[in-house]
């Protein structure tokens, strides 16, 4: 009873101190639970009473604790869109490498209509009037008959970190010893380089002026349009032929140039090879057909003809002869076919080659339109005379290691020096090899440093040749002439007897 009386007095005191009934005590303490709990121990009652008194005292001072307010809900920060890289306005800014390539999951190399386009680095390079070239061509001996005896490195190598393996290459001359080089290959990447006057990186190589992903598959051909070098044609293993306007590029992270036109219906399978004659484009496809398209001045591509039925498998190589209606192709069935595009049945000659593996490359000698050069995975090259083609004219061997057997990599040789010689790369040697067509003899070899995929000659204006080799990078070579012959020819030229020299 004493405890109950004491508790009643305390409750009256509480009513005096807190006349406002709406004001409650701290929720951590419950009066009724204390009054009704007779089973609570004395120690527990004393502890709770002490807590209550302390709470009352804090409330009178205005310091009573209140339940913590809930934290305001924070909104997730939206990451800022990275600002676009500034467009280089001067040549010196080209020392900066190209932007990172887009991811491999890019489905289509298309240009959205709402993306701004700007002048490309290629266009600015082509318009640069200053002659920044450090390349001084040797006196031209192309009018002489002095033979090539070897090659030497010139300039710096071209390399694109995104394009790790090059399958195709083309070059076009601009002016003032300046030219453009285009390359395509693995993973669908295409690169365009400025031949002279561009900055050299710390590793001694030149980076591309433009680099982009042009196909979901690998690129089989790149070619500049002869009448407009700002239009670049590409073919690829997805069966597409695309014309790119390389004087413009997206103002975005991809820097992809606009597509002028795209042909997707000419072939039902991948395109393995492409060649050009003036405004005509020939393509060899895995669907066993050769397509012929006409490139109009505005960049439009018009399919003119599809030739099929002359091969039993994929056609892997095609090239024009000395006119627009004359072509040669080669295929996985080991056949070399001569085509006349004017005829209803265009296949006029079928050559069953003596290669032991599928043919990958055929080239017509345009200075001697009866000679064909073929390559397969064999360690030998074959030369054919289409006037008598039962057997090859000669075999060229020595550019591949003798113990290699069948080559694992596809390689493409080329006629050089007016068709009098053949230059080629070869698996396992890391070299460029030079053959005499007349003597069917290996003349010399020069070290590249790795196994390249192709050789491509390019006449440098009115000067001599540049020989390109390409694989993981592009290297430039100048031919070395027979200096004794050159001196004799110069003397003969002065006397008007330059045609008297015979090897």
TrEMBL record:
- The region called Disordered is annotated at 1-41, 62-111
Keyword field contains DNA-binding: yes
Q: Record's superkingdom? A: Eukaryota
Q: List the GO biological process terms.
A: DNA damage response
Q: Where are the WD repeats?
A: 212-254
Q: Where is the composition biased (Polar residues)?
A: 21-41
Taken from the record, one Pfam family name reads WD40
List the Gene Ontology MF annotations in alphabetical order.
DNA binding
Range of residues in the leader sequence? none
> Belongs to which family?
Belongs to the WD repeat DDB2/WDR76 family.
Protein name in the entry: Uncharacterized protein
Source organism of this protein record: Dendrobium thyrsiflorum (Pinecone-like raceme dendrobium)
Mind giving the lineage of the organism this protein is from?
A: Eukaryota, Viridiplantae, Streptophyta, Embryophyta, Tracheophyta
